[in-house]
Amino acid sequence: MAQQLTALALSLGGAAGARLSRKLHCEVSRNTLLRLLLRLPLPTVVTPKTLGVDDFAFRKRQTYGTIVVDLEQHRPIALLTGRDGGTLSTWLKQHPGVEVLSRDRKGSL
């Protein structure tokens, strides 16, 4: 049952998974589904050869972040605090092997 609920949580998340669980007559709360997800081991991230980098605002003019995306797998692999080049440079030094880096043309990175 735990494996099935974990698959449900992975597919739909907490709230939607809880709604579907009621329809399947195995009602669980969204918090239970989220706890099942937290028990899963984190996948190992292999440094990709092709990265996409972009900055974004958590709150405009207050809190910014940088997202690092594996362009071959089309998956985000890191969220960095701030949007300055130093944070990205530190991340790249810790993850050698990047051959191509794609970013927008804004000057802050």
Strand fraction equals: 25-35%
The rounded distance between the terminal residues' Cα atoms is 47 Å
Helix content: 25-40%
C-alpha geometry: elongated
Number of domains: 2
Indicate the low-confidence ranges by residue numbers. none
**Can you write the helix and strand succession as a string?**
HHHEEEHE
Q: Could you describe the largest sheet, including whether it forms a barrel?
A: 4 strands, mixed
**Which structural class best describes the helix and strand composition?**
alpha+beta
- State the total count of DSSP E strands: 4
Radius of gyration: 18 Å
Mean pLDDT over the full residue set: 89
Give the strand order, joined by hyphens, for the main sheet. 3-2-1-4
Count of DSSP H/I helices: 4
Summary tags:
elongated; 27% strand; alpha+beta; four-stranded mixed beta sheet; 2 domains; 109 residues; 4 strands
Report on the architecture of this protein.
By secondary structure, this protein is of the alpha+beta class. The chain folds into two domains: 2-39; 50-103. 38% of the residues lie in helices and 27% in strands. The protein has four helices and four strands. It has a four-stranded mixed sheet with strand order 3-2-1-4, with helices on one face. α1 (2-12) packs across α2 (14-23). The longest helix has 11 residues, at 2-12. The termini are far apart.
